[in-house]
Amino acid sequence: MIRHWVLRSVFFLFLFLQSTAGVFAEEHERPILIISSYNPETFQTSQNISEFLEEYKLLGGTHPVVIENMNCKSFSEAPLWKSYMKNIFDKYRGERRPALVILLGQEAWASYISQEQVMYEIPLLCGMVSRNAIILPDDTVDLKNWEPESLDVLQEQKIKVAGYLYDYDIEKNVQLIRDFYPNVQHIAFVSDNSYGGVTLQAYVKKEMQKFPDIDLILLDGRKHTIYTIVDKIAKLPENTVILMGTWRVDKNEGYFMRNATYSMMSANPKLPAFSMTSIGLGHWALGGYIPSYRTIGKDLARQANAVLEKKNGEIRKIIQFIPNRYEFDAHKLKEAGLSEKILPQGAKLLNKDISFWEKYRFQLTLIALAFLFLLVGFFITLYFYLRTKKLKDELEESEIELVAAKEKAEESDRLKSAFLANMSHEIRTPLNAIVGFSNVLVSDDFSEDERQRFVNIIQTNSDLLLRLINDILDISRLETGRLKFTYEKHDLIHLCRGILSTTACSRKGGVVYVFNPAVETFEIETDGQRLQQILINLLSNANKFTENGEIRLDLKIDEPGNKVFFSVTDTGCGIPLEKQQVIFDRFAKLNEYAQGTGLGLAICRITVNMLGGEIWVDKDYTGGARFVFTHPIHRP
């Protein structure tokens, strides 16, 4: 919600700037024309524009600024971008001809250099673009299988390039991979269905010709979804290293951010990965030789001012490359058994162990905020108590008003007591642990191992408190209908195997998973994220209450009845018959001392019902507990 609000605010800001700049353009000829790609990196684009406007004003610039957004999305729209750019230039010819054009983003840059005739006589600056580009295709090209040629724009004499460019270095990344893994035979390059992804892929194919002894495997987002990419990664041969390019858009034009690289990582966790664009750094990639990404709005303003101050209006090739540097993940290096001593000089380390305060600053801040919240709550409660008491004393003069006030107070107290009865234990337990162990951390009577154990307890209870809040938010959005479902076709067998792999880490030593579907593949139409949430909740409950034996996930497909029956069976302690209905109520727990919020099954029931199915406990099964729910194969 916050991200959408920010994007909408930026969008309306752009409209406002365009409208005001248009008025100024009528009074002053020769404006500065900024053309932005308006791609998913809108935040970075808007930040650069804001910095440019602020710096240009401070420098005393007098030219009005006009902003045009191309609204580029996935690469499937690439044949249209040239016409978008042409239409923009057609608006600014003759008397409206700009004094300077600034291009922000890869798509705008590619649309400009792909024009047959552009205003080359007008000074041009660019930012957020790469030295290596491709010429956009026409609408007759099969984009899915198109193999464009990588173009070095600095070698094109007709293109007057100036501004700030990224200069990706494939050779250094390949050499880095070889230094770490001398036996590498295959490099699997991951790129998405965006202009940046296709451009990087073309550049990588060109540069990898210098390494004929290494097999290049292309994991192309134009041909794959996130799910098929994960399957490909799981089946990569030995002596393969992943090289991350970009990943935001798959072939279905679905936007995937950091969660996509987590899925790729989990498909083959032992496979080493490197990044040439910072994608995957911090949680998956060991490292890479990547640009030092930063905002360049102020720098562009200074360049623009220098160009516009020249009376002849000519522009020199003021090329500034965003410098590259080596970046590595200290935790991943440690997991791979690699020493930091072998890193190139000047390399930047991420996730490096830091001081106790810096390492646990978030947790300690959260504890302080929780204490402050409780303190504020106490004073608010005290205030309302005193206010209520004063009102009660005043209302004693009128019996009718006193009765009305009393009934209102009793109703408020009843609702408060009902809520506190459900919530007090769940909130008090982690808070007691957080506050208690935070107090003993400052004592000198404990060893470092004991302190670490206290910190782990604080972290665990912080996670429990956060999970409780997330569950409350989830059930609130489900009950109020503010959560929208996105239906797509999903391979049920693949989805279930992925869920079993995800929850396997919480399985106890004496427990085994059993999943033997009758078919190898079966598609249903569902919201994959919500169906995964249901199964993960049920499997997590089974893991929690099963010490030995097995946990079985079964599917029964009833095509004539348009239903799939899911069941999760365990050999745990089971559920008494009289409790099998109430466990789906909010805050219902059979064991008050077991971890959990008591909201998981309530969320499952609401979600199953909204998907068009039903959920229940199998009364006939006595070897533990068995939860069964249905899901339509096709939406009505």
Key traits:
single chain, 636 residues, alpha/beta, Rossmann fold, Helix Hairpins, 6-stranded parallel beta sheet, disordered N terminus, signal, Sig_transdc_His_kin-like_C
List the helices and strands and how they pair.
Elements: H1 2-27, E1 32-36, H2 42-58, E2 65-69, H3 78-91, E3 100-104, H4 106-113, E4 124-130, E5 132-133, E6 151-152, E7 163-166, H5 170-180, E8 186-191, H6 195-207, E9 215-220, H7 226-234, E10 240-244, H8 258-267, E11 273-275, E12 287-291, H9 297-308, E13 319-322, E14 324-329, H10 330-335, E15 348-350, H11 356-359, H12 361-395, H13 399-441, H14 448-480, E16 488-491, H15 492-503, E17 510-514, E18 523-526, H16 528-545, E19 548-558, E20 563-570, H17 600-610, E21 615-617, E22 625-632
Parallel strand pairs: 1-2, 1-3, 3-4, 4-7, 7-13, 8-9, 8-10, 10-11, 14-15, 17-19
Antiparallel strand pairs: 5-6, 12-14, 16-18, 19-20, 20-22, 21-22
Helix pairs in contact: 2-9, 3-4, 7-8, 12-13, 13-14, 14-17, 15-16, 16-17
